[in-house]
Specification:
CATH topology: Arc Repressor Mutant, subunit A
Number of domains: 1
Distance between the termini: 28 Å
Strand order of the largest sheet: 1-3-2
Shape: elongated
Largest sheet: 3 strands, antiparallel
Number of strands: 3
CATH architecture: Orthogonal Bundle
Radius of gyration: 15 Å
CATH superfamily: Winged helix-like DNA-binding domain superfamily/Winged helix DNA-binding domain
Structural class: alpha+beta
Helix content: 55-70%
Length: 110
């Protein structure tokens, strides 16, 4: 991920509803959610949700797949991985052991 893509991702996540959507889609994993399910879960109107989903999709943080007449949304794990890699590119000045706690947290190591 380059700097411009990272800035687009940060701008997309810099709004409360979009951040909530992204976090919700990460929690749902491979199951994903329809726009209506996301809106219901977060209490957001359909037209507002559509605009937010479009911004997140353009930023590369979510993807969608058509299922018949509806569209299902998923967190784009490659996009998230790219953003995290961009942030940690020069982590710890060449001392990877200092970054291990962050990596463990990202890997859901309890």
């Amino acid at each position: 991920m380059d700097k411009t893509q990272a800035l687009d991702a940060f701008a997309a996540l810099g709004q409360a509803t979009r951040l909530d959507v992204f976090r919700l889609l990460i929690k749902t994993g491979d199951a994903g959610l329809s726009a209506g399910e996301i809106g219901d879960a977060l209490g957001v109107r359909q037209n507002t949700m559509s605009a937010n989903l479009a911004i997140l999709a353009r930023s590369g943080l979510i993807r969608n797949a058509r299922e018949g007449r509806s569209i299902r949304y998923f967190a784009d794990m490659d996009g998230m991985r790219g953003l995290l890699a961009f942030l940690m590119e020069d982590c710890c000045g060449g001392r990877p052991a200092l970054c291990q706690p962050v990596i463990n947290e990202l890997a859901c190591a309890g």
